[in-house]
TrEMBL record:
Database matches in CDD domains: ABC_TM1139_LivF_branched
UniProt KW keywords: Amino-acid transport, ATP-binding, Nucleotide-binding, Transport
Lineage start: Bacteria, Pseudomonadati, Pseudomonadota, Alphaproteobacteria, Rhodobacterales
Statement: the UniProt record of this protein carries the keyword Transport: yes
GO molecular function: ATP binding; ATP hydrolysis activity; branched-chain amino acid transmembrane transporter activity
Family recorded in the similarity comment: Belongs to the ABC transporter superfamily.
Signal peptide boundaries: none
Domain of life of the source: Bacteria
An annotated GO BP: L-amino acid transport
InterPro entries: AAA+_ATPase, ABC_transporter-like_ATP-bd, BCAA_Transport_ATP-bd_LivF, P-loop_NTPase
Name the record gives this protein: ABC transporter ATP-binding protein
Length: 236
């Protein structure tokens, strides 16, 4: 087995003295979509925070392209090519759409116009609303702003915690199509999803987390076909 592009390996840790993650392992390859599913409180968001450096690990490692980045701050991980869209409060509602996207590029010293245009090509509605306060947008459009903002750093890994939370099925399909499009450019997608069936359908790899531990890991297709996964986690 060769080294995955990004791996959080045997991650153990939590908040204060309480461990939430128990030797949890999550990995993703370039151009691949990896999806984390599991019940509420399973530790999905905690696993994402751990991979992004927002949680001190008591055990395990995070490696990017073979390099141990476990000690790096989130900002240093952004500089290494990681971008994270958290589950909540992922945009600045009082700022315009374009200001939000510009904020995403805060670490860059080069010209960001080309990337801005790429984001507007991916999400055309954002261009038409570029001077509007992001807080005035619909739920689905706000998620587009959040994803677009993350893309402004030109990441190699895009981490999304429930990007389709609170949006209609049509908007969800739309957003998944855009995420597939992003993955096809070679970016790794690591995503937590509440809409487990739909997400596993587009997943190259799926992780079912339960109580902070890996319960099932397989291709999205194989997980969807597994009777036990279906019964326990996909509603039959
Ligand atoms: N900041 C925090 N401080 C203390 N405990 C926390 C904190 N954030 C989460 N937890 C606890 O950690 C456990 C895992 O939470 P986490 O948010 O990772 O779950 P999740 O799988 O993302 O759930 P959901 O599907 O509801 O988003 C829960 O028991 C939660 O109460
Ligand atoms: Mg969560």
């Amino acid at each position: 087995m060769s080294e995955p592009f990004l791996i959080g390996e045997a991650m153990t840790g939590g908040y204060g003295a309480v461990d939430i993650l128990h030797a949890c392992t999550i990995a993703v390859e370039p151009g691949e979509i990896a999806v984390i599913v599991g019940p509420n409180g399973a530790g999905k968001s905690t696993a994402m925070k751990a991979v992004f450096g927002m949680l001190k690990l008591r055990g395990g490692q995070v490696r990017l392209n073979g390099e141990d980045i476990s000690a790096l701050t989130p900002q240093a991980r952004v500089a290494k090519g990681m971008a994270f869209v958290p589950q909540t409060q992922n945009i600045f509602t009082s700022m315009t759409v374009e200001e939000n996207l510009e904020m995403g590029a805060f670490l860059r010293r080069d010209d960001i116009k080309g990337t801005l245009e790429q984001v507007y090509e991916l999400f055309p509605v954002l261009k038409t609303k570029r001077y509007q306060a992001a807080g005035e947008l619909s739920g689905g459009q706000r998620q587009q702003v959040a994803v677009g903002r993350a893309l402004m750093t030109q990441p190699r890994v895009l981490m999304l915690d429930e990007p389709t939370a609170g949006v209609s099925p049509i908007v969800m399909d739309e957003l998944f199509d855009r995420i597939i499009e992003v993955a096809r450019t070679g970016i790794s997608i690591l995503m937590v999803e509440q809409n487990a069936r739909q997400a596993l359908e587009i997943a190259d790899k799926g992780y079912v987390l339960v109580q902070g531990a890996n319960r099932f890991t397989d291709t999205g297709k194989a997980l969807m076909a597994d009777p036990e996964v279906r019964r326990s986690f996909l509603g039959g």
